[in-house]
Automatic annotation (TrEMBL):
Residues 192-388 form the Amidohydrolase-related domain. Pfam families: Amidohydro_2. Gene3D superfamilies: Metal-dependent hydrolases (3.20.20.140). PANTHER family: AMIDOHYDROLASE 2 FAMILY PROTEIN (PTHR43383:SF2), NODULIN 6 (PTHR43383). The lineage of its organism: Bacteria, Bacillati, Actinomycetota, Actinomycetes, Streptosporangiales. This is Amidohydrolase family protein. InterPro entries: Amidohydro-rel (IPR006680), Metal_Hydrolase (IPR032466).
Length: 394
């Protein structure tokens, strides 16, 4: 007797592609869209992970993400596909940021946003603003390092830092769905995985406070304190996200391999807290391995999908090689231009249709199973992990 799920009920001719197009995706790691208008230089600087000035002899539109914007976002703004960059930006300016955001976020088909607010949060729409513009629920993911820096900015001594941070984290995350750490940026993933002793935390907090006093710069990058933030986050009990792999030049990429987290993963396993590895490119196969062998590990290929554009189907295909499908999620990691939110969803849907459709065409999968896997990855896994069916947060 066949154990396949019931056949797809999609209308004739729609099948797998129609089912994937209709998914109300949960974007489990994303940032807000910019509320203000952008000139060409500002726009181009926001469609690259580089923090360097763009050389005068090139344009960021000549890239996979640039071509994807001109191909897929132009029609949403009322232009023909493959518009000229100047025409695209002129149309964008004509419509204004509010209308551009409304169109692109609406056309994304994202059904629920989990918004990480820790990076330049005053420049982007907050969860309430994203919900207002998109017409879809938007809830918060709290960045651990941002909370620690707020505690120091508000005033503390070294001995009181740990307790003040714990109290602040619980208050800031009272209605949040998850937490995030950027330890990959601030130190690298090759840190001692053990929780630091209280005396170590106090000593490290003292070093940090003295550095803040001498430089005026509040930035937590001490490995002892970063470990303390992570373990306090584990104690909080919410799903905990880790930036992995590709990002701006502040990341030392060879120290961003998720295999370096094995010790922490094993120590955190008894807590039952889900550890979510974000983006992972070019280490997404490593993340898939970890998700296969450890029950508390999940991953996505978010950021890599936008920036690989026409090649994103290859990245998505590689993400499906080892991990159980219940351990993979969708994210866009979009920040700023709403084009990135729209493309994150569109390119993922297209990639899943091509990859899973190939499995079906080859006779390896049934269409019903392909629809079920796409639904798990795009919607159901995030709803389970972040308890999105709950009226209140944990």
């Amino acid at each position: 007797m066949s154990t396949d799920p019931a056949p797809s009920t999609a209308p004739p001719g729609d099948g797998l592609a129609g089912a994937i197009d209709d998914l109300p995706l949960v974007d489990h790691h994303v940032h807000g869209a910019l509320a203000g208008d952008l000139d060409r230089r500002e726009f181009e600087e926001l469609i690259t992970e580089s923090d360097r000035p763009i050389p005068s002899w090139m344009t960021q539109f000549d890239s996979q993400v640039g071509f994807a914007i001109l191909r897929h976002c132009a029609p949403v703004l009322g232009l023909a596909p493959h518009a000229d960059p100047a025409a695209y930006l002129a149309r964008r300016a004509e419509l204004g940021a509010a209308e551009v955001n409304r169109r692109l976020l609406g056309a994304s088909g994202i059904g629920h946003f989990l918004i990480e607010t820790g990076y330049r949060g005053d420049e982007i729409l907050d969860p309430a603003g994203m919900a207002r513009v998109s017409g879809r629920p938007a809830e918060e993911v709290v960045r651990l390092e941002a909370v620690a820096e707020q505690v120091v900015a508000a005033g503390t001594d070294a001995a009181g830092f740990a307790d003040r941070f714990a109290a602040a984290l619980w208050e800031r995350s009272r209605t949040a769905r998850g937490l995030k750490t950027i330890v990959a940026y601030r130190h690298g993933l090759d840190f001692d995985p053990r929780p630091p002793a209280p005396a170590e935390v106090t000593e490290a907090a003292g070093r940090w406070l003295r550095a803040v006093e001498s430089t005026g710069r509040i930035r937590v990058d001490d490995p002892v304190l970063l470990r303390h933030l992570i373990w306090t986050g584990v104690d909080r009990g919410l799903p905990l996200q880790f930036h992995i792999g590709y990002g701006d030049p502040d990341v030392d990429l060879h120290r961003g391999d998720p295999l370096l987290l094995r010790g922490l993963i094993e120590l955190a396993e008894p807590s039952g807290v889900p550890l979510l590895l974000l983006h992972c490119y070019p280490f997404h196969r490593h993340a898939g391995y970890l998700a296969q062998v450890y029950p508390n590990v999940y991953f996505d290929v978010g950021l890599g999908v936008n920036y690989t554009g026409a090649r994103s189907a290859a990245v998505v295909a590689e993400s499906l090689e080892l991990a159980p499908f219940a351990k993979i999620l969708f994210s866009s990691d979009a920040w700023g231009p709403a084009e990135l939110h729209h493309l994150g969803a569109l390119l993922w849907r297209r990639a899943m249709t091509r990859v899973l459709g190939g499995f079906v065409a080859d006779g390896e999968w049934s269409e019903a199973r392909a629809v079920r896997v796409a639904t798990m990855i795009g919607v159901e896994n995030a709803r389970r992990i972040y308890r999105l069916g709950d009226a209140t947060c944990p």
